[in-house]
Amino acid sequence: MGPENHRVPIDPVLQPLPLVPEISLFLMATDVGLFDLTGGEFHSDEPLPFWAFAWAGGQALARYVLDHPEVVRGRRVLDLASGSGVVAIAAARAGAAEVRAVDVDPAARAAVARNAAANGVRVEAIVGDAAESVDPQAPGDGTAEAEDPGPGETYAEKAHPEGRADAGGPEVVLAGDAFYSPAVVPSMTRALRRAARAGARVLVGDPGRGFLPEHLFSQIAEYPVPVPESLEETNLLVTGVWEIRTT
Hints:
This is Putative nicotinamide N-methyase. This protein is an alpha/beta fold.
């Protein structure tokens, strides 16, 4: 009857991550690719099961957070486009005071909850839009809500000269492999810039898919991330960790 007959059942198994062995996630086997789970089909009204894989950008960002726990320790952390929850789990392990993981896919919320429990940490998993998660009160598309920082000035300093994030809002915003398609770039960029303007520190992990607006970011770390060839058509992706630029 067509490609639907050739779908691989979504049956993830708990396994440690190549770059972040401290964390184990329920993931698909390494010989399974994303579209094996959909029978080669894509329906715009049916989210792809990104949560069933540990993407390179998420692994690199999780590695950075665990290696630099001072980034999140004692802070409110928001993980956007959370997928499996690897970045959120890393933040919780590194001592974040509060961790929320946001994804548009309800299945991702269930995956984050399951993975967090498997790693013995607490993460609040939420189904929602990235921009609204950063600031539910933000108007419109956010393109003209504040001026960009001047020379030598950060977004956080522009919004809050004393260096604090908005009271109650996220103090650190993380996004692993969130720039995976040109379709998501405008909304994700607006969300991250909005977070930075509110005083949050903003970090992303990106394996060079070509969609990250690099002119807005500065690279602060780089990792060679082992990945399944069935997923990425290579077995290694050199992946950067980027921080929203300061000028």
